[in-house]
Amino acid sequence: MAERGGIVPAITLHTLDGLPAEVPQAWAGTPTLVNLWASWCAPCLKEMPDLQAFSAQHATTGVQVVGIALDDVASARTLLTRLGVTYPNLVDPPGPTDAGVRLGNPAGVLPYSVLVAADGRVLKTHIGPFANQAAIANWVQPWETRGLR
C-alpha cells in the first residue's frame, strides 16, 4: 500500500480500450494528480468538471491528471463522454485490493486523490471532493513551487 513519502506500488490497470497500463510507470517522469472515482459517486461527478478544467489549465506546467474509475468500462466511458472529460482514465474493478486501497485509501471513500511526484513518491492524499478548481490548484500549488520533479 502506498504511504506518504513512499513510492507508488506497481499496479497493472487497464485503459478504457482494454490495454494494460503499468502504474506508476505509465506516468513516470511527470507529476500526477491521480483521482479515484466511480460512476455511482455523486461527489465524484460534481468535482470532475473542475478536474477537467485544472487538467486543461495545467497541461503546460507538467502536472497531469489521471483518473482511475473503480467501475466497469461501459459505465466509466459513458460518464466521461457525458461530462466531456478528456484527461486519461484507467479502470479497476472495485474490491478489497483495488487501486484505491493500494494507493492508500483502505476505507474506500470516494473521491480520493493522490499527488504523485515525477519520481513516483506519494506527496499527499485527499479524501472527498474538492470544492472547486481553485481548491485543486491550492492543494497542488505548494508542491509545484517546491518542484514536483
How would you describe the overall organization of this protein?
This protein is α/β, with parallel strands linked by helices and 149 residues long. It has a single domain (25-143), classed as Glutaredoxin (3-Layer(aba) Sandwich). It has four helices and seven strands. The chain has a seven-stranded mixed beta sheet. Strand 6 (112-116) and strand 7 form a beta hairpin. Helix 1 (42-58) crosses helix 4. The model has no long low-confidence stretch (mean pLDDT 90). This is TlpA family protein disulfide reductase. It is found in: Cell envelope. Residues 2-145 form the Thioredoxin domain. Keywords: Cytochrome c-type biogenesis, Disulfide bond, Redox-active center. InterPro entries: Redoxin (IPR013740), Thioredoxin-like_sf (IPR036249), Thioredoxin_CS (IPR017937), Thioredoxin_domain (IPR013766), Thioredoxin_ResA/DsbE_sf (IPR050553).
